[in-house]
Write a structure and sequence with these properties.
The protein is α+β, with helices and mostly antiparallel strands. It has one domain. The chain has two helices and two strands.
Length: 63
């Protein structure tokens, strides 16, 4: 595939990939955002009200 190169180890196994970001930058961003969302889905949740209270307490001008 043009714009995609695989990095292999001494056994010929693919261990990494290089992506032409000029060509596939938007696709990479979508992929990365998806991975980030998946990882963060395991993080504890905080309600909007608790975030607002915390920000008010810190003096960040939240109304």
């Amino acid at each position: 595939m043009e714009g995609i190169q695989y990095v292999t180890d001494d056994k010929g196994q693919r261990i990494a990939v290089m992506i032409d970001l000029k060509k596939y930058g938007e696709l990479w961003e979508d992929f990365y955002d998806s991975l980030t969302a998946r990882v963060r889905s395991r993080e504890p949740r905080e309600t909007l009200d608790s975030v607002k209270k915390r920000l008010r307490k810190q003096g960040n001008g939240i109304t």
